[in-house]
Specification:
28% helix; 11 helices; TIM Barrel; binds S-adenosylmethionine; alpha/beta; binds iron/sulfur cluster; globular
Length: 371
């Protein structure tokens, strides 16, 4: 029997404390990285815990009762999160997405939303403040989230068939509760609402057309996500990926589709619409069609590490700077230097050399860094 080693939660991933540059600079709102990509989008993970055990994200065998989740003292406080958010907005961030783990499990999340909603962008507009959730607590919380200032939600749902959905979430959570959450979110005006479906071969690929049919003509925009090699615990294999091309082929055969233009540069989903006017679907082709060229996303982990790529192997410890009493100007300048030095384009490199995928690398888990 092999012994299970559980690393101290705070030290399981590589991290560095960013150096504070000698010359401090005021943010211009116009940061660019080595590939000219701006910093527009910040994803904040507010908890590493979840009430689901989706097979592609938090498989039960790894995330079991012995798994060391972060202790409460490690988490960024709402004040710390808001402080970082303000510094990032000064650098040009216009969109903030709260994620996790399951963000609705974080106690008093509405308070954080209220604090973030008071931030305005460089051009004086309200932030595009959104949240990705598994929908389990949405029916209960939709109104309070809206009242707190949340603009919209994205809800994950991998199947309509009860037994398939329960096999995917692995905690026997019923489809009907997520559908209720969707309706509640729509009723209080948390739209436009997107529904994300991760497709894993042999698990829920038979649900592609039923899901498309269900959401066709509804207020919800269904998006299909290619199963990604994020993290190390899901045992990802290329032959479990169903390509977006295959998803489009299947839907098009049943309900004819045509491609449409992106809403904005850097949009992660390729858009398709039903030829009969029944709305649109999106394809997020992280594996077969890398979109690193336009990637303007930074990610903040639950305990304050900044990741400049979903596949980064090391985080930059902003919490250490805050808790060491560094000033806003110091932290902001450190962030500017980090973003300017950014070279990440993991998915593009993976498409060039898929051999690299089988190399063991200390990748961070999706539940820790947020989707
Ligand atoms: N718990 C929330 C949820 O499920 O919506 C938010 C966090 S979850 C990590 C964010 C998104 O990442 C979800 O839409 C989920 O389906 C997606 N995701 C997780 N693991 C993935 C993987 N291996 N490949 C593709 N998408 C994944
Ligand atoms: Fe939880 Fe979301 Fe990961 Fe599923 S995808 S296990 S709901 S964090
Ligand atoms: Fe962005 Fe990294 Fe994903 Fe490329 S692989 S799109 S750089 S997060």
């Amino acid at each position: 029997m092999t012994e299970k080693v559980i690393p101290l939660a705070d030290h399981r991933y590589l991290q560095t404390v960013p150096a504070i540059p000698v010359t401090l600079e005021a943010p211009t709102g116009l940061l660019g990285d080595t590939l000219g990509r701006p910093l527009h989008d910040l994803r904040i993970s507010v908890t590493d815990r979840c009430n689901f055990r989706c097979v592609y994200c938090m498989p039960k065998e790894v995330f079991d009762k012995d798994y060391a989740f972060l202790p409460q003292t490690s988490l960024l406080s709402f004040e710390e999160i808001t402080r970082i958010a303000r510094l990032f907005v000064a650098h040009g961030v216009e969109k903030i997405r709260l994620t996790g783990g399951e963000p609705l499990l974080r106690k008093h999340i509405e308070k954080l939303i209220e604090m973030l909603a008071s931030i305005t962008t460089q051009s004086g507009k309200p932030l595009d403040l959104t949240l990705t959730t598994n929908g389990s607590l949405l029916a209960r919380k939709a109104q309070s989230l809206k009242d707190a200032g949340l603009k919209r939600v994205t809800v994950s749902l991998d199947a309509l068939d009860e037994s398939i959905f329960q096999r995917m979430n692995d905690v026997d959570f019923p489809v009907s509760d997520v559908l209720e959450g969707l309706d509640a979110a729509h009723a209080v005006g948390l739209g436009p609402i997107k529904v994300n479906m991760v497709v894993k071969a042999g698990m829920n690929d038979g649900q592609i057309v039923p899901m498309a049919r269900h959401f066709k003509g509804s207020p919800f925009i269904l998006r299909f996500i290619e199963y990604m090699d994020v993290g190390a615990s899901n045992g990802w294999k290329m032959d479990e990926v169903i390509s977006s091309a295959e998803v489009v082929r299947q839907i098009d055969e049943a309900m004819p589709l045509e491609a449409i233009a992106a809403n904005y540069t850097g949009e992660t989903a390729q858009r398709w619409r039903y030829r009969d006017g029944g709305g649109e679907v999106g394809m997020i082709s992280s594996v077969t069609h890398a979109f690193c060229g336009d990637c303007s996303r930074a990610r903040l982990s639950t305990e304050g590490k900044l990741y400049t790529c979903l596949f980064a192997t090391s985080g930059h410890d902003l919490r250490a700077l805050m808790r060491a009493g560094r000033t806003d100007a110091e932290i902001s300048t450190a962030v500017a230097h980090l973003w300017r030095a950014r070279t990440d384009r993991y998915s593009e490199l993976r498409s060039i050399n898929t051999d690299g995928l089988s190399q063991p690398r200390p990748k961070v888990e999706m539940s820790y860094i947020g989707g």
